[in-house]
Automatic annotation (TrEMBL):
Recorded coiled-coil stretches: none
Name assigned to this protein: Enoyl-CoA hydratase
CDD domains, sorted: crotonase-like
Origin: domain of life: Bacteria
Pfam families found in the cross-reference section: ECH_1
Protein family according to the UniProt entry: Belongs to the enoyl-CoA hydratase/isomerase family.
A Gene Ontology molecular function term of the record: catalytic activity
Amino acid sequence: MSYIDYEVADKIATITLNRPEAANAQNSALLDELDAAWTRAATDDEVVVIVLNAAGKHFSAGHDLKDDSWPEPEKITLDWIYQTESRRYLEYTLRWRNVPKPSIAAVQGRCIAGGLMLCWPCDLIIAADNALFSDPVVMMGIGGVEYHGHTWELGPRKAKEILFTGRAVTAQEAEQTGMVNMVVPLDELPAKTAEVAGRIAKMPPFGLRQAKRAVNQTLDVQGFYAAVQSVFDVHSTGHGNALSVSGYPILVDLEQMKTNIK
């Protein structure tokens, strides 16, 4: 079963999350397919711009907490969590961020926790007016999702607010913080994304690559890259705490929350 659709037209590679029946929750197979699609677009000389979108009502409900490839709950160890998340969550997202081509995420509906890790690595985010962004994992005893872009994307106080309370940020709020480039009516999201991607696709690829590299390196000099990696290690201590205290019964509550948004 494939969870990702991929097509190229007019110098634009469109990657579509295609697991709408699960609100595009990310199991291991989806993430591996997604990484392969990013690599395919990055290495295709015919592709100038990459668009990431999602089928169905919601962009992504985050990590699939009932992933069939995971061990039984009683066999999950902190080392297994660290190794798995390091590869599929941290390495993948940092690689997508640094693909030397402009990328655009088109977001509608819910974008929960791990969903942020799909849109934040993109260079631009275009949101439908019904988009809601949240990271409620503090309820699991963890300080935030693995790719910790919160402070950079939202500013320190807004980042603390959404982490401390678990509430969702609207598309309009996200635009005000600079996390989202523009907000459009839901039915206009595909057309506006195509318009922006088409305009970028007409630019010289070398200039686009250098512009992206300049901005990303500026953020890295300010500490982004080192901060994301170091916070990931702190994140892992949260898993250790949750395993030692409860063995993760809270996962059932989070999964039910995701079920309710389908």
